[in-house]
């Protein structure tokens, strides 16, 4: 008989074992111990044991679903009207028995009881309270298309495919960097510097990247500035993806929070920033870089592809139908 209950402090070893046995594909990290789960999930200041539902048979954890909330538009607080199911997994031996559907229903009940008025499945920027560093690669961007079970599962539960995110990778050193007169001019007039954090980090930033800093995980913020003047032009955060090395079989980094000053967009600075960072990382023996971008941001896609990145996957957020 399958029992459903909420999280207990003794559960992490079984959750880790389930994670490793579920075969989640290229987008799921393979942590070697429960320390990663503690860092990225259980020690988050807004972790609520009631939001993590487990399915058990005879004391064995055979499935779980984890629900949480997105942040406010200014990223200053949790917004409990924005409910998100961050993860659903069931052991292969217990699939197609209604376990996953039951877990989703219990997650929905939890979110509604806490005030959610909108509900999504698949963590993505602004709606990603948990699993940053464990699922998605560079960052959670919905459930990945490389997991063929996600779409039919959620569509059967009254969810529809919503926002999508492109997942791009570039193998460093696989081909020469593009070069033209504009890029040469930008390279001559600017320089890359390393800074500790964004100019105006938000509370949400600290709950994600601040935790990486405190845990000693690789995290660098590169800023492109004008030489001598130091005027900020563009910036990007680089994070280490050590948890994915057992899956990808290569040393990888992720690029997140790319920004270009509004008045300077469309002038080649975004491309120059990415290429400059790639040159720097190649010297550090990094094999591959990954970056994600919302599908509707056509400009960002063009910049990413112009820097030699190729799309390898798609992240899909599923929106609950009324």
Could you walk me through the main structural features you see in this protein, from its secondary elements to its overall organization?
The protein is α+β, with helices and mostly antiparallel strands. The chain folds into two domains: 2-164, Aminopeptidase (3-Layer(aba) Sandwich), CATH 3.40.630.30; 169-314, Gcn5-related N-acetyltransferase (GNAT) (Aminopeptidase), CATH 3.40.630.30. Helix content is 28%, strand content 33%. The mean pLDDT is 93.
Essential attributes:
322 residues; alpha+beta; Aminopeptidase; 13-stranded mixed beta sheet; 9 helices; 33% strand; elongated
- CATH class term of the largest domain: Alpha Beta
Strand content: 25-35%
What characteristic shape results from the CA principal axes?
Answer: elongated
Low-confidence runs: none
Structural class call reads: alpha+beta
Number of domains: 2
* Overall residue-averaged pLDDT value: 93
Q: How many helices? A: 9
Entry summary:
With 322 residues, this protein is an alpha+beta fold. It has helices spanning 12-21, 35-42, 99-113, 150-155, 181-189, 203-215, 245-248, 269-283, 298-306; strands spanning 2-6, 52-57, 60-71, 78-90, 118-121, 143-144, 159-171, 190-195, 219-226, 232-240, 252-260, 288-294, 310-320. The protein folds into two domains: 2-164, Aminopeptidase (3-Layer(aba) Sandwich); 169-314, 3-Layer(aba) Sandwich (Aminopeptidase).
């Amino acid at each position: 008989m399958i029992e459903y209950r909420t999280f207990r402090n003794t559960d992490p070893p079984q959750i880790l074992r389930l994670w490793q046995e579920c075969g989640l594909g290229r987008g799921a990290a393979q942590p070697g111990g429960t320390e990663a789960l503690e860092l990225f999930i259980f020690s988050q200041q807004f972790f609520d044991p009631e939001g993590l539902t487990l399915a058990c048979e005879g004391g064995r954890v055979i499935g779980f679903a984890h629900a949480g909330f997105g942040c406010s538009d200014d990223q200053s607080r949790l917004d409990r009207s924005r409910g998100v199911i961050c993860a659903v997994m069931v052991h292969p031996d217990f699939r197609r028995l209604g376990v996953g559907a039951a877990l989703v229903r219990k997650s929905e009940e939890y979110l509604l009881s806490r005030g959610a008025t909108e509900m999504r499945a698949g963590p993505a920027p602004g709606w990603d309270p948990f699993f940053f560093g464990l699922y998605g690669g560079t960052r959670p961007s919905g459930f990945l298309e490389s997991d063929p079970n996600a779409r039919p599962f959620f569509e059967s539960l009254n969810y529809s495919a919503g926002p999508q995110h492109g997942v791009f990778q570039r193998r460093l050193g696989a081909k020469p960097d593009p070069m033209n007169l504009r890029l040469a001019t930008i390279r001559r007039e600017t320089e890359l510097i390393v800074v500790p954090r964004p100019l105006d980090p938000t509370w949400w930033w600290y709950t994600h990247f601040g935790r990486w800093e405190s845990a000693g995980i690789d995290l660098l913020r590169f800023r492109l500035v004008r030489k001598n003047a130091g005027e900020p032009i563009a910036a990007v955060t680089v994070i280490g993806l050590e948890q994915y090395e057992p899956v990808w079989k290569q040393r990888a980094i992720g690029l997140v929070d790319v920004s270009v000053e509004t008045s300077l967009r469309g002038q080649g600075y975004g491309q120059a920033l990415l290429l400059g960072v790639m040159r720097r990382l190649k010297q550090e023996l990094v094999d591959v870089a990954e970056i994600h971008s919302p599908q509707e941001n056509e400009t960002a896609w063009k910049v990413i592809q112009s820097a030699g990145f190729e799309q390898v996957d798609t992240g899909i957020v599923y929106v609950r139908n009324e």
